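User: quick one, sequence for these tokens?
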């Protein structure tokens, strides 16, 4: 159900309230809290894109500009992990194949490998680090190992046209570099995670392996902050809740996509925000908006 038009053209372009949709009366009631929060953020200049669907039926529960391509930061590593999992079937690229880190791979920011002494790690361990912490160094080593062209070919094969892994992780992006690490739209990302849950990405083995790596994710600061789970130990059901998610953070970017199962239902969701990160108040408002969506999701599944 569409909400009333906004006061100005500028606001309406970014307004979640105008462009958002609810999937029926029941969804309107269940998701009104998050829907209102996203609308308030949009009115204050935050670009919002979001979508949630029932995991079993595929029924749309709500959407806000879910076709819009947004920067998604570390969520692009999901596309990398899919290609890594598929490539594990190659004779010369097994789970225990050691990959060396080099000076060209080095980058600051998220991850723990940069703080460890080991100069080499197995492919499966690097994928686990990416899944758990969006490890930048491990990401760059895996990209070098499988190649960006192979990741792009896999994305094309999956039929994704609005989501992409564009580049290596870089400390600074120059004029000759891709402006973002990754891009995506909520509609495609929710489809991708639903297909992973159904074992349909490449095949059941590849889907299961990718979900296993993603289940290690320790970032529960966004939508998942509403679920009350242990960020370091949530691979098994806790109070009937089971979560697999991936997050992305960059300057002015907060993005999350995930699958939440509960006693009553399961849901696939994606929420991305692009905003002027001018101060802690602006950032906290975005995170609070994402948490409000999480509370609605929790209510739906529990």
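Assistant:
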């Amino acid at each position: 159900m569409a909400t009333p038009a906004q006061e100005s053209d500028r606001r309406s372009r970014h307004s979640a309230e105008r462009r958002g949709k609810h999937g029926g009366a029941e969804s309107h009631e269940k998701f009104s809290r998050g829907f209102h929060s996203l609308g308030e953020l949009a009115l204050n200049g935050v670009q919002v894109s979001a979508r949630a669907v029932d995991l079993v039926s595929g029924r749309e529960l709500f959407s806000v500009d879910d076709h819009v391509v947004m920067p998604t930061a570390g969520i692009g590593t999901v596309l990398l992990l899919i290609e890594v999992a598929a490539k594990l079937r190659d004779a010369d690229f097994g789970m225990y194949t050691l990959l060396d880190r080099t000076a060209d791979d080095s980058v600051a920011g998220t991850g723990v490998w940069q703080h460890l002494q080991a100069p080499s790690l197995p492919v499966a361990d690097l994928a686990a680090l990416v899944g758990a912490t969006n490890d930048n160094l491990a990401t760059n080593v895996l990209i070098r190992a499988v190649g960006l062209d192979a990741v792009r070919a896999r994305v094309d094969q999956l039929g994704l046209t609005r989501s992409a892994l564009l580049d290596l992780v870089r400390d600074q992006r120059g004029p000759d570099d891709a402006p973002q690490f990754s891009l995506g739209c909520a509609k495609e990302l929710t489809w991708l995670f639903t297909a992973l849950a159904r074992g349909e990405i490449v095949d059941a083995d590849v889907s299961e392996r990718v979900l296993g790596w993603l289940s290690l994710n320790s970032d529960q600061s966004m939508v998942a902050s509403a679920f009350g789970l242990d960020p370091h130990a949530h691979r098994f059901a806790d109070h009937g809740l089971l979560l697999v998610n991936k997050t992305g953070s960059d300057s002015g970017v907060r993005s999350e996509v995930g699958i939440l199962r509960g006693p009553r239902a399961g849901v696939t969701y994606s929420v991305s925000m692009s905003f002027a990160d001018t101060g802690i108040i602006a950032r906290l408002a975005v995170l609070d908006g994402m948490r409000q969506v999480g509370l609605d999701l929790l209510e739906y599944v529990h």
